[in-house]
Amino acid sequence: MQGISPPVGNKRSLPKLTGQNDRHSSAWKHVDDLMQQGLKNVFPAAVLLIARQGETVFRRAYGWLDPDVRRHPTRLNSLFDLASLTKLFTATAFMTLVEAKQVALDTPLVDVIPEFGGVRPIAASADPVTKAMVPPDPTFAGMLVDADAVTFWHLLTHTSGLAAWRDLCQIEAAPGQPQPHQVPPETRAKRLAAICERPVFTYPPGGRVEYSDQGFILLGEAVKRLAGMTLDAYLHQSLFSPLDLPNTTFNPLGHGVPTNSLVPTEFCPWRQRRQRRQRRLWGEVHDENAACLGGVAGHAGLFGTARDVTRFGQAFLDGGRNVNVRILSPETISAMSSRQASFDVDERGLGWMLQSQTTRAIRRSLGPQSYGHTGFTGTSLWVDPDRQLVITLLTNRVYNGRESASIIDFRTRLHQMRVA
Known about the structure:
The chain is of the alpha+beta class. It is built from 11 helices and 19 strands.
């Protein structure tokens, strides 16, 4: 990555909203009060940025990077672990290759990753949070899957049949656990090969929507092979540079970003055989599989600022354009942000979450065409074309552990506030 910006002072006052009436002033006060409440029991650090019609209307940093001693306040350009917001960047990079006619949505994955192919059994898989093994749905138990049938459309819509998660860190295990950017390339290659050569399926391709990190790890590897360069290099070339996202990067510690610019997450309890982290993750990706893949993966690993994430969302709102630079056509933007697949209460675009029962907090406040994504560390990005809004919330809600109820409730309350 190039051009990491130095930290700037934290603006503690609410932004001045020129020309706004008392109703809007009151709304911003309620938003600020809610963020202050979140500091008490949801996260120790956060940045909230709201843009309307391309202009920032609310931007404020909250809390401390070191809440126990309070030496380092959160700043507007503090870098957060974006977690699964990484998937949006991977999906967008893939679509640039589709527009370049290097690949198509209906291209089988085996055309790019041939070792993925073959007949695979539907099997038990590990829960991504508890890590406990879960048997497959009895409807599909004992069935075989033809992996050759999986297309890139399946990966982008989470309909591939691939299990949500699997443990890659046990492969080529060694004592201790280095920083992600210190993982040997040969170790990363062996771990990646496990997914490419021995994928775990829990249902037939196209049978339902089931969110899958495995699928986006494979999508990231496909982008690498199609582009002829590493995933991080292609993201920089196709997205970070043209969209002017100077503070978005994988492995910030490996790029020399100082810790006082990075928002820490959990004191990670992970321990497995001779491996362990058991340290506060400060500039080190929270997701274990992303860490064991060297910090660069299609599903997780990116760090970024609220400004950069908002600028990314704004490019979708503006039809794939950043000023005079276009990353995707309006037609592709429309396809990515409209319904491609649905099952039960879940609806998906290409990479994006859409309005559905699973996003009930968004349905009550944002327009019916809104779309977005969340990240396990406490991040979220939502785009509302009806009201020309981009709402970016970056937090480190996992700082004190992985229990998720508080962040779900907090997001509900935030997005139910009428700010436009």
